[in-house]
Amino acid sequence: MQKIKIKNQTEIKFMRTAGKLAFEVLNMIEQYLKPNISTEDINQICHNYIVNQQKAIPACLGYNGFPKSICTSINDVVCHGIPNEKDIIQNGDIINIDIAIIKNGYYGDTSKMFLIGKTSLLSQQICQAAQESLLQSIKIIKPGIQLSEIGKSIQKYIKKKNFSIVKEYCGHGIGSSFHEAPYVLHYYEKYHPKIILQEGMIFTIEPMINAGSSEVYCSPHDKWTVRTKDKSLSAQYEHTILVTKKGYEILTN
After folding, report:
1. Which domain covers residue 220, as residue numbers?
2. Which residues does the chain have with pLDDT short of 70?
3. Residue 176: exposure state from Cβ atoms within 10 A (0-12, 13-18, ≥19)
4. Would you call 192 helix, strand, or coil by DSSP?
5. Domain-located, residue 88
6. Residue 61 falls within a domain, yes or no?
7. Rounded to whole angstroms, how far apart are CA atoms 160 and 235?
8. How many domains are there within the chain?
């Protein structure tokens, strides 16, 4: 099993900066998210802001061949949606924007849902459930608990809402690398390795919640875009979390 890196105070300082910048991109882009804007335009605005204003690097651009600076996932797209000129957001859509940046050699990673214009009740409910499942799981974080308690918390909440959890993708350790150990499941798996949280661990939690079946597929055309098999809506929120001496700190807040 890959060794989990415990961050020192210097690394934590850099991670705070990177997390803050990633959050600021999501804050900045909201004003542009109106019907008839293309996801390519959204990508370009974010790219320019990251590079020119923040003097940072878009972490997604070129990562394992990913062609754009952010991910834009609309309606039934679960994750890794590639911005392009043909995808125009419409009134009633929900869209996840996933931002990852590199500053001073360290990564910040966060995403959230945006509801465009007048949305359906189901759209509102699934976005709220995804966000609340994330926030509830964060609240239990402290040194000494098992990592699997995070997935257990998310699963318990989502089951009550009669939605489903995507199992193919998970949260991850993060630092001077984009993806590190540990890998954070968003459901409970009793056979998962027992990992005890320690002060100085930093990882993302990013539950992907479907309105229908949990089954998903990856586009055979672009090899990136993940969609729900039954075309049901999907929602995701993500934060980067530091385990502190007595609890947690959200670095992307």
Report:
1. 9-250
2. 1
3. middle
4. coil
5. yes
6. yes
7. 16
8. 1
Residue 44 within a domain? yes
Q: What span, in angstroms and rounded, lies between the C-alpha atoms of 242 and 253?
A: 12
Phi, psi of 157 (to 5 degrees): -70, -45
Residue 179 annotated as lining a ligand binding site: yes
**Residue 57 is inside which H or E element, if any?**
strand 57-58
What is d(CA 69, CA 215) in angstroms, rounded to the nearest whole number? 27
On whether 172 is known to bind a ligand per the annotation, the reply is yes
Give the pLDDT confidence score for residue 200 in this predicted structure: 98
pLDDT at 190: 84
pTM of the model: 0.97
Length of the chain: 253
93 has binding-site annotation:
no
Tens digits of residue pLDDT in 41-93: 999 999 999 999 999 999 999 999 999 999 999 999 999 999 999 999 999 99
Q: Count of CB atoms within 10 A of residue 117's CB?
A: 12
Looking up residue 120, the CATH number of its domain turns out to be 3.90.230.10
> Would 211 be classed as within a structural domain?
yes
Render the burial of 130-161: b for 16+ CB within 10 Å, e for the rest: bbbbbeebbeebebeeebbebbbbbbebbeeb
